[in-house]
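Memo to structure team: turn this sequence into structure tokens by end of day. - J.P.
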Amino acid sequence: MSTLPSVTDASFASDVLDAEGTTLVEFWAPWCGPCRAVTPILERIADEHRDDIRIVRINADENPRSSAAYHALSLPMMKVFRGGEVVKTIVGAKPKPAMEFELAPYLS
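Reply from structure team:
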């Protein structure tokens, strides 16, 4: 079970689009092996960079509206939001150094 907060179709606007600062959303599914690999990496990044970025996850199978709206067709897919807009998309599981490299513009 992940320690990252979950969002849903119903809460996406308030939890992500209206959020202050930078939010990374992990689109995942329980059957997705690479999702299981990347979640602990995202949990560590969330712990280490809690002042820079907020990381949440959304179950793509249970929340088809958000998944379709943000074209989350390949899982895991991470979308970085600022000011209600997508500023970066990351597709696939990556090791922690590669993920931190991708997120470097948003981490201090």
